[in-house]
Write a structure and sequence with these properties.
By secondary structure, this protein is α/β, with parallel strands linked by helices. The protein is 60% helix and 6% strand. Among the domains are: 107 residues, Orthogonal Bundle (Arc Repressor Mutant, subunit A), CATH 1.10.10.10; 137 residues, P-loop containing nucleotide triphosphate hydrolases (Rossmann fold), CATH 3.40.50.300; 97 residues; 74 residues, Arc Repressor Mutant, subunit A; 138 residues, Serine Threonine Protein Phosphatase 5, Tetratricopeptide repeat (Alpha Horseshoe); 113 residues. The chain has 41 helices and 15 strands. It is globular. It holds the Pfam family HTH_77. GO terms for molecular function: DNA binding. Keywords: DNA-binding.
């Protein structure tokens, strides 16, 4: 029989375990683990391809290559493997289930052998953005070889050297060389465009495709990288070195498989760092009798000659030329950037004149930069000389282009720097020339070219601007990016990953710079206010809530009376309110949202009102004010209808259906949710995109809950799985998390604990990745309920207490009543009846106050059950009868079924077996589906025994596990 195979000679280490593949032996802290052959095959297959999804079909074909088996066999052996590993105990995580797809080994793993891992080279990282290396790189083969060895040994390797020495070129070449060893993944993060150190982590997160959903993005960044095997290239770090050092230290501590390659003029000086000093290219010495052949064999000479040829010059170096080349290389200290700039001048001025010009400008630089490092003196001299070779038009354009931070387009250049004397043909001609002279770099992003000044060149050009020029350019620059935001802002919610967002993200750097200028000492607050207002929806769509809050507050504080009740104030108040809601969760968000709505209503624009009413509805739900949420939802629906836009109407259906569901109006909720689902997918530029999601996409998970409560357990499960599938395919994390929350609730109510656990793992993974911490807490609460149902009520109760307390502290109350019900069930299992009664009474009062009436019947039933256990049968019967009446009023047949079972048990205890059976048969007749669920099985068993199943006693299932009709 063929077995799953791995590295036959090596050992794999993870957690306390050692897996010897060749010997087919698993040991825990040196002690052999008793593991069946099939389970061991599974472990070898999964551990040999860590962080790789292996489908169920692929695993079954590996483990049973010659036999056709059912999927249940795979689940059986997977359960045994997880039990042997202690997977899920004390926070240990080894194997993750991806529902409907397969399994993935997620624990950090080390191998005693560097042998090839099957399939490893085929893995590609979806957000890798590494540029291709140069076809030929001169004089750096030894550096690449040396650095390759260091990257394999050290978690951080810093390439340190002076400006222009070629650090970035070497880093890109090295990363391309090593990418195949890191799951095909190497990600370049260029920090040279950042002026604010606090943006280092958000910039890296955005390049990795991680939404920045909290004030501190670092936890989600570390969670994302924790199990990744990738190479991160941190480029141009010297101006933010302290922040980068702290981030790098956190990453290598949290993510042992990540390697970091740094380029900087200063080392990070952190533990685990290997510092590699990148020297300048070796130059031929000034020695008598040195031959031209020897001179031209030196790397600096080779680079200069190749760049001269690449510039188009007809050049064949003679013996005399070789000595001139050697002199140029020495004067430029072998700095790659300076050599390239000088080489491009040879076509115009010839070799001798280029050398003469270089001599002149080096002397000027040495006098002017006496306290600068030698290499900065040389680079500064090259820039002085290069600038002197430009025409007056080119100098003007170069100075004016320095207003841009990082990349810009031709359209941006035309809109920002054009003057009456600088028309489009002249501007574009000057840009072409600057690109040819290597003072401006050009990069293709799809069909569009983007341009960028080198950082040193930009600083040099800015120094040449006059105060008047700078003020006029800054105003023009800020106005352009306000228009850019208004034009392209609606596209942002549709961009789901780093490569798609990159061109837009580069534009945001210019928005930040424009905002800094506008609200600075010499800025223009009016321009800043309009720019900040235009930036609000983009910051929200990209989950940049800290920046949204900062600039909204700054703009609002700068407003004069003439901005009162303006469109700008409306957007800024909405941005401030939503940012505070997501960042802090407190009620300090409400005044800003309320003010924004007042302005929208005063302006009479229905779309504007919907943009604020949606966040207000979400705010009330998050804070547990379900009554206010329902009132707001009615207004959302009415305003949406007034827009006569299908996308807005769909959003209105969702808000109303969601609020009606929690309010216990299940029949009406179903109509609204189904109407939202029936709508067509939203177009890219839709009002719904302002709040970051689509009503159609979110409705499925809530409808699944609604269907279960109404007594359609099979339809509920099908709808839940469909909603989760669609959300996963759309790759929208917020939508997926809400679909998972709805689905898990349905699986728990049905008693399908295996499906519930699988989807809980998925929810924890996705929500944790995107800093959606309240969803993680709810998922942990669901896990605690499963622990109670599986016979560990102590652990479950402790876990639920912690989750509920933390959710209260974060003012996230949407699911606290559901978790409170689970906690009370656990207390009952521990026979802590008094505390259970106290908590259920408090929960009933909370429901009456807050308005999440959908849980009311179940709370009354649980109260009756607890009272029945204390012999207060009359009070118990009264509560359970009230639960039945409340269930019928809201058409919650599933709650009615549970309450009817409890009432039948009370009647049976009094000897009224026929009455008990009648009660059960009446409610059972209302169900046309779900006959394999726990609640319906129990009711059928009780009815067949004339109700003679004492309360709290549960008949066994076929496999001997108690079928639990939980409280």
């Amino acid at each position: 029989m063929t077995r799953a195979t791995g590295d036959a000679a090596g050992e794999l280490f993870f957690g306390p375990f050692c897996l010897n593949v060749g010997q087919r032996l698993l040991a825990k802290e040196g002690v052999p683990v008793d593991l069946g052959a099939r389970a061991l095959d599974l472990l070898i297959a999964l551990a040999s391809a860590p962080n790789t999804l292996l489908s169920k079909h692929e695993l079954m074909s590996r483990i049973w290559p010659d036999v056709v088996v059912e999927e249940g066999n795979l689940r059986f052996h997977m359960t045994g493997l997880r039990k042997a590993l202690g997977d899920g105990q004390d926070g240990a995580r080894y194997i993750t289930t991806i529902p409907g797809r397969g399994y993935c080994f997620v624990a950090p793993i080390k191998s005693s052998s560097p042998a090839h891992v099957p399939g490893h080279d085929a893995i590609k990282f979806r957000h890798a953005n590494l540029p291709h290396r140069l076809e030929r790189m001169v004089g750096r083969d030894g550096d690449i070889l040396n650095l390759s060895g260091r990257v394999s040994k050290y978690p951080v390797v810093s390439i340190v050297g002076g400006g222009g020495v070629g650090k970035t070129t070497v880093a890109i070449a090295l990363a391309n060389h090593l990418a195949g060893s890191f799951d095909g993944a190497a990600v370049l993060a260029d920090f040279g465009t950042l002026s604010d150190p606090s943006l280092v982590s958000p910039a890296l997160a955005s390049m990795l495709g991680i939404p920045v959903g909290s004030h501190d993005v670092r936890p989600s960044l570390l969670a994302y990288l924790r199990d990744k095997h990738i190479l991160l290239v941190f480029d141009t770090c010297e101006h933010v070195v302290d922040t980068v050092a702290d981030l790098a230290a956190s990453i290598i501590d949290a993510a042992p498989q990540v390697r970091i390659l740094v380029t900087s003029r200063e080392a990070l000086r952190i533990e685990g760092e290997s510092i590699y000093k990148l020297e300048t290219l070796a130059c031929a010495p000034d020695e008598p009798g040195i031959t031209a052949e020897t001179i031209l064999s030196y790397p600096a000479s080779q680079l200069f000659v190749e760049r001269v040829a690449a510039s188009g010059a007809a050049f064949a170096a003679s013996k005399e030329d070789a000595h001139i080349i050697a002199a140029i290389c020495r004067k430029l200290d072998g700095m790659a950037l300076a050599l390239e700039l000088a080489a491009r001048r040879v076509e115009t001025y010839g070799l001798s004149q280029t050398a003469a010009l270089l001599d002149q400008h080096l002397a000027l630089a040495w006098v002017g930069s006496r306290n600068a490092p030698p290499r900065q003196k040389t680079l500064q001299a090259t820039l002085d000389w290069s600038f002197g070779l430009l025409s007056e038009l080119e100098r003007t354009v170069l100075r004016r282009l320095a207003i841009f931070v990082g990349d810009f387009t031709l359209d941006a250049a035309w809109e920002v720097i054009a003057t009456p004397s600088l028309d489009r043909p002249a501007l574009f001609s000057a840009i072409d020339s600057l690109v040819a002279k290597s003072l401006l770099s050009a990069t293709s992003f799809g069909a569009m070219m983007r341009y960028r000044l080198l950082d040193t060149t930009r600083a040099y050009a800015l120094h040449g601007q006059t105060a008047d020029d700078r003020a006029g350019l800054a105003a023009s620059h800020a106005s352009y990016y306000r228009r850019w935001l208004e034009q392209f802002g609606p596209d942002w919610p549709t961009l789901s990953n780093g490569p798609e967002r990159l061109p837009y993200f580069l534009g945001i750097n210019n928005v930040r710079a424009a905002l800094e200028w506008a609200f600075g000492d010499n800025g223009n607050a009016d321009i800043g206010i309009s720019l900040a207002a235009a930036a609000v929806p983009v910051f929200q769509a990209m989950s940049l809530f800290p920046e949204c809050q900062r600039w909204s507050e700054r703009a609002l504080s700068s407003m004069g009376d003439h901005y009162q009740e303006s469109r700008e104030e409306m957007h800024l108040q909405a941005g401030l309110g939503m940012s505070r809601m997501y960042l802090h969760g407190g009620r300090d968000a409400l005044p800003a949202l309320t003010r924004s709505l007042e302005i929208a209503e005063g302006r009479g624009n229905a779309v504007d009102q919907l943009k604020v009413l949606g966040p207000l509805n979400m705010f009330h739900l998050r804070t547990g004010d379900f009554k206010s949420a329902l009132q707001c939802a009615y207004r959302c629906s009415s305003v949406a209808e007034a827009t006569e836009e299908p996308s807005a109407i769909s959003l209105g259906h969702f808000f109303l259906g969601n609020s009606l569901h929690f309010g216990g109006q299940l029949s009406r909720a179903r109509l609204e949710l189904e109407a939202a689902l029936a709508s067509d997918p939203l177009p890219i530029r839709a009002p719904g995109s302002y709040v970051g999601f689509q009503g159609r996409g979110l409705s499925g998970g809530i409808l699944a809950r609604n269907l279960w409560l109404q007594g359609f357990p099979d339809q509920a499960a099908a709808r839940a799985r469909q909603a989760i599938k669609e959300a996963a395919e759309a790759d929208h994390s917020l939508t997926l998390c809400i679909a998972l929350l709805g689905g898990i609730a349905v699986f728990l109510w049905r008693g399908d604990l295996e499906s519930a656990q699988e989807h809980i793992d998925w929810l924890i993974s996705r929500a944790g990745l995107h800093s959606l911490s309240p969803y993680v807490l709810v998922a942990r609460g669901f896990e605690a309920e499963i622990a109670i149902r599986r016979g560990d009520p102590s652990a479950g109760v402790d876990g639920l207490r912690r989750c509920i307390e933390r959710l209260h502290a974060s003012t996230y109350e949407v699911f606290t009543t559901m978790l409170e019900i689970s906690l009370i069930k656990g207390l009952a299992a521990l026979r802590k009846v008094d505390e259970g009664l106290m908590r259920v009474e408090k929960a009933i009062q909370s429901v009456e106050t807050k308005g999440d009436f959908c849980y009311g019947p179940e709370l009354l039933r649980i109260k009756g059950h607890l009272l029945g256990s204390t012999s207060a049968s009359d009070e118990a019967r009264h509560c359970i009868a009230g639960a039945i009446a409340a269930s019928r009023k809201m058409s919650a047949r599933s709650w009615e079924l549970r309450a009817s079972c409890d009432l039948a048990a009370l009647e049976a205890d009094l000897g009224k077996k026929k009455e008990a059976a009648t009660i059960l048969r009446l409610v059972l007749d209302a169900f046309d589906e779900g006959h394999d669920t726990n609640d319906l099985r129990l009711a059928k068993d009780m009815s067949m025994h004339d109700g003679d199943v004492p309360i709290g006693i549960h008949p066994p299932q076929a496999n001997g596990v108690p079928r639990s009709r939980q409280l």
